[in-house]
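Internal QA ticket QA-208
Title: Verify multi-chain structure generation after dependency bump
Assignee: T.L.

Test input:
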Amino acid sequence: MNALRCPKCSCPLDVVPLPEGVSVESCPHCFGAFYDAAELAVKVELSGAVDTEWNCPKCGGRLQTGRAYGKLELERCAGCKGIWFDSGEIGKLREHSGVEGLIKPGAGPAPGDPPLMPAAALAAFTQKLEEQRAGAAKGKTPKALEEKDSPFPEIPEGSTLLNLDEKNDPRVEHQGRTYRHFQTSRPVVTYVVGEFPWKVKVGETAIARDFVCPPHLLSQEKNGKESVWTQGEYVEPSEIWTAFKLAGSPPTRVGVAPAQPNPYEASWKAVALSFAVFAVAAVCAASVIGGWSAGKLVYNKQLQFDPKAAEKSTVTEVFELEGHTSNVEVFIDAQLNNQWAFFSMALINADTDVALDFSREVAFYTGVDEDGQWREGSPLDTVYLPMVPPGRYYLRIEPETDTGAFSYNLRVRRDVARFVWMWLALILLALPMFWVLWRRSVFEQMRWMESDHPWASGSDDDDE
Amino acid sequence: MKTGYRIYGALVLAWMAWAGYYGWSMADVDEVKSVPKSVRDNPGAYRAHYRTHTRYYGGK
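Actual output:
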């Protein structure tokens, strides 16, 4: 495995063969590339070079940043003089230097490097990668990269180009299903026992690629020029135990298998559909009940309060609350002048002598300071008395304040429509749906944790 | 899960309809029985549950 790592994002670097007969190290994540000084046909001088925080991927020396041709900022190793190009900077160097052929032709690939790719095939494949990258940026699923579509030649055993699956995240279409790439590995024969219909050698390698569409699995094994595809389907452990009449029960599951069906997939869809139905029903029911509500004004009067009066409490005229048991809205609009007011109130049934005791407080302060006018509190207050039976009622009010007299408007309405219960019902209905969605998501995260495309970001220190 | 959620959803809808129709609320209200009829002529004779408060409220 190539031990060189990208100085910017620490991903393992790919060795990319170029048509000019040289190989450069390229990062499959940020698409930067490292060129040895001898590989460039143009001499790059950096002015105002200063040390950066990055190290050279080849020799470990400090990368320095400076300006080439007065405008282009590049990083060059202070030791081996190799240059690191971020994505797109090679093209900019071509523009600023005026040199079209930047790469110095070499004698061919070094021993151990992969074979050269023809320039036309490389250009076509690069264009396909750019299209996929642009599509991925827009949130589109990458196009299927079936074996017959790829211009990529047979992957030789020494190649490090397996990382392309990790970058491309290819899909395979088969029998009406779309299989997503799960992992690519390089199995090695380490031990042989028994008889085989073909000659097996210790040390033989192959390239194994798995694609999943739970509960289905497609696996490809490439060995030299031979490519074998296998189709599989996940089977529950209990089914195997039953089929083979095994004693006891299967061992406890650990983790999630690549093609294991998500047990929350079916319930998530069912709950989501049920939620949609319930949400529509809740809105319709709330609208109907709201439409039936009378919202009748039964009392509306401007009252005065003087804290110096001998009798501070007062009672209203008797008013009729009609219809079925319902709520009563009591609204206060107090004309306050930088003061608070406390209302001890009781809604008393004139016939049954039963009272509903409650209290409200309002406060309103305003003034001007260096920041301008300020306000605090509100002179308005609304309370909804619950489940008041029909009958003849009056209100007893006993105000209290800290300063002077004030006037206030008191308004009473019967059977007022309120939609707060609809919103609360929607929240309660959505909670189980979000719980199932979360469980489904956690299951998928566990599935892909061991794949080449884990959901959680973070560095993996086990690559070495 | 599906059946359980449907039962739960039906109960939530029933509660919402009941609360909306009968005007249920969480207002802090106390029921007092046997209020004397003389309160209409002498409001001061009624002993309110929420008579006064001593908390300072607002202002700069």
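Spot checks passed. Chain B has one helix and one strand.
Status: verified.
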